[in-house]
Design brief:
49% helix, eight-stranded mixed beta sheet, single chain, two-stranded antiparallel ribbon, alpha/beta
């Protein structure tokens, strides 16, 4: 009877959770895309932008006072102070205005930076006065406009990929002037998750070499659309979760009151051909195997229904659940750079030519690989992601909507 009850519970829970996954989790294999997804995305983005602008405007005075004070302090060449982190948001005018990505990232990033007294924040504006959103925010956060005179002899006016590269080079050199220990660079269409700084400090102290010269970059983002279970991962996790569920079910049986308590026990004649202890042992083993089998199958069903990107989100519950793995070749929406390598990175990027087939992320990765080969440095990727991509329209290089699942996750 206990096994039947357990099976009914598993089937009932799965019947309730799987439809939930299919309706709300964008990367679930059974997810159904809403018919009005693009309209909903614009509505959600508009609401978020309004809330972000309201927060920044209502706290503009004290935010500006604190951020500009720190920038003056650390920019003083005679100052002995050195910030731990220089947060740098690189932004440029987009083909479609009114999405207010920059406003949204600052509304999430500013509160975390202001509370950490060894951090500073700057916005690098690659398009100067043409980028109205950045100019409007310059009264609240430090905004530095593009130093285009540095690159008048370059060809980036005909190549947006080259312009993006030179914006990064100028931004990194700007950040190097305040001598931070680490530079945290964000693109303007990602927002940090809560607990960014505590998680960063934990990872830097536990998962990276103590010497800042021994590592180059720590990437904070990998696209969810390329995150999936391997066969080994899903089997191992299903087995672990299944065994935990089995142990919990047995624990419930042990600690629960006996169902026969207070009743008169009836002696039932038993066959004496097999010793009773042996038969009880066989029954116990069989019961455990059946319980474990049902639990593993239940765990496998949930893991496959939820998909890996959403399961990894559970790791944000604590800094201790974050870990690092080998850095991937692509993607730099959010990256931490160890300051001893800033100058070398700028010089290397300056010697490359970026285009559609060879973007900034690949050029930066080639620099990282060359450092690894020559100096034995390392570069890592954080799991889970510490920033969320909110851009559902790719309008920097082309004006195209992203995939339905990417849009859904951006507004999730």
């Amino acid at each position: 009877m206990q096994l039947v009850t357990m099976a009914v519970v598993y089937v009932s829970v799965a019947a309730l959770l799987v439809p939930y996954f299919s309706l709300t989790l964008p990367y679930s294999p059974v997810y159904r895309v809403p018919t009005d997804l693009q309209k909903r995305a614009l509505e959600v983005n508009g609401r978020r932008a309004s809330e972000a602008d309201a927060y920044l405007r209502s706290n503009a005075e004290w935010i500006a006072e604190e951020l500009y004070r720190r920038l003056r302090l650390y920019s003083n060449s005679q100052s002995m102070s050195q910030p731990d982190f220089c947060f740098l948001v690189v932004t440029a005018k987009r083909q479609v205005e009114g999405l207010f990505y920059l406003t949204q990232i600052l509304a999430k990033l500013v509160p975390q930076v202001v509370l950490d007294h060894s951090s500073i924040l700057m916005v690098y504006n690659g398009d100067g006065t043409q980028h109205k959103e950045a100019m409007n925010l310059s009264s609240i956060v430090p905004v530095v406009n593009s130093r285009v005179q540095e690159h008048r002899h370059k060809s980036f006016y005909r190549n947006e990929y080259e312009k993006e590269k030179y914006d990064y080079i100028s931004a990194l050199r700007l950040c190097a002037e305040v001598r931070p220990r680490y530079v945290v660079v964000f693109q303007d269409d990602v927002v940090p998750y809560a607990g960014l700084l505590p998680n960063l400090r934990y990872l830097l102290s536990r998962h990276l070499p103590k010497s800042r010269e021994a590592w180059v970059v720590l990437k904070l983002f990998f696209p969810e659309k390329w995150t999936s279970w391997s066969v080994e991962e899903v089997l191992v996790r299903s087995l672990v979760v299944g065994l935990i569920l089995t142990a919990l079910s047995l624990l419930v049986i042990v600690v629960s009151p006996s169902r026969t308590s207070g009743r008169k026990r009836v002696r039932v004649p038993t066959c004496t051909c097999t010793p009773i202890p042996v038969r009880r042992e066989k029954c116990a083993v069989l019961s455990f195997v059946v319980r474990a089998g049902m639990s593993v199958a239940f765990a496998l069903c949930l893991l496959l229904s939820a998909s890996k990107p959403h399961v990894l989100e559970l790791r944000r519950a604590s800094s201790l659940l974050h870990y690092t793995t080998e850095a991937t070749r692509c993607c730099i929406p959010g990256v931490v750079i160890s300051s001893p390598h800033l100058q070398d990175m700028c010089e290397y990027l300056n010697s490359t030519f970026c285009q559609e087939s060879y973007g900034l992320d690949l050029a930066m990765d080639d620099f990282v690989r060359s450092k690894e080969e020559r100096e034995g440095t390392v570069s890592r990727l954080v799991v889970p992601n510490m920033v969320k991509h909110i851009g559902f329209v790719s309008c920097l290089h082309r004006m195209v909507w992203k995939t339905d699942r990417e849009i859904s996750f951006a507004i999730h």
